[in-house]
Amino acid sequence: MDYATSGVDIDAEGAAIASLIESLSSSVRKPGTRGAPVPLPGGFGGIIEFGDSCLALATDGVGSKLQLANQLGRYQGVGIDCVAMNVNDLLCVGAEPLAFVDYIAVPETDPETHSVIGGSLAEACRRARITLAGGETATLPGIVTELDLSGTALGWFPAGEAITGEHLQAGDVVIGLPSSGVHSNGYTLLRAIVEKSGFSLTDNAPFDTAHPGREIEGETESSPTLGDVFLNPTRIYVDPIIDLIDACRQEGGPCASEDIKAIAHITGGGLSNLLRLHDSLGWHISNPLPIPPEFNWMADTGPVENLEMHKVFNMGMGMCIAVSEGVAENVEKWLAERLSGSRIVGVVTDDGHRVTHADPEIVFEHY
């Protein structure tokens, strides 16, 4: 099984996005004025000028993970997913998230469901240390058939201090931060695998769900169900990444701010996201983080080839940070003290614009 035959073709989606971008006109805001665009090829968020600061914007949704939440009538984690998918992108340009606005589309209003989602969004904003600045709810019978949730996050950083990847060089070290599970990507393929397996989302998970540094939220004393595992919310990485950036801007931090070269959010596209950070250098993941058991179950049940799994899913690494070689051990220790399981996973290479892996079958040459 693969993502394309399940209904989502990543390569075709990339071509469609490129076509969209080519059709967009340039900004009417001129360089040096508030709101003028700051070029960031391949970036995870958009940047605009704002005096002595820059503002960063990211917009995203929960995707088809919501179909599982709708199926189970369980929305306690989807607000966390929505905020996480946005603020985690802001972190990749070194922006501190400040505020979030949400958009909820429903076929009909349900006060109880909206209350649960509101609580989920509030918890997400607490974890991300941001303000929920507003939102919109649209009732759209005939256009939407079940609840959909998306949003936009706003962040900032001092002008001239964007983390872009442009100063990467061969020998820089890659530190991986563990995911909480599947996060919010690849659910079209995931749902096809669950359907094929014959298991229900309410069945106990047919694998040992234990994984270092990860909790299944809402788990009771009984064994977690497949729904528990696959609806586990996306990890929000504001803590520790913003704390790392702030510490490195001051004396006594684990490194100087210029030693933080690049940050990648491992979302749809998997490890190929690394190729967005530099147009010629490559990456080698020699010591990948442990793979959570749900990914191995999906790969076996599909079956899904290992390359496809690493193209669609995060496979246990939700974020990664590239730092100068000389400070890598200090940064690794600093991160691991705050997020258990964080560790050095690889290096930046100069042997071509591609991602290679400890598994020789896993090679990506384009995003």
Descriptive overview:
The structure is a single chain. By secondary structure, the protein is an alpha+beta fold. It folds into 2 domains: 31-158, PurM-like, N-terminal domain (60s Ribosomal Protein L30, Chain: A), CATH 3.30.1330.10; 173-357, PurM-like C-terminal domain (Phosphoribosyl-aminoimidazole Synthetase, Chain A, domain 2, Alpha-Beta Complex), CATH 3.90.650. Helix content is 31%, strand content 22%. A 6-stranded mixed beta sheet has the order 1-2-3-6-4-5. Helix 4 (78-91) runs parallel beside helix 5. It is globular and about 50 Å long.
In a nutshell, what does this entry contain?
This protein is an alpha+beta fold and 367 residues long. Helix content is 31%, strand content 22%.
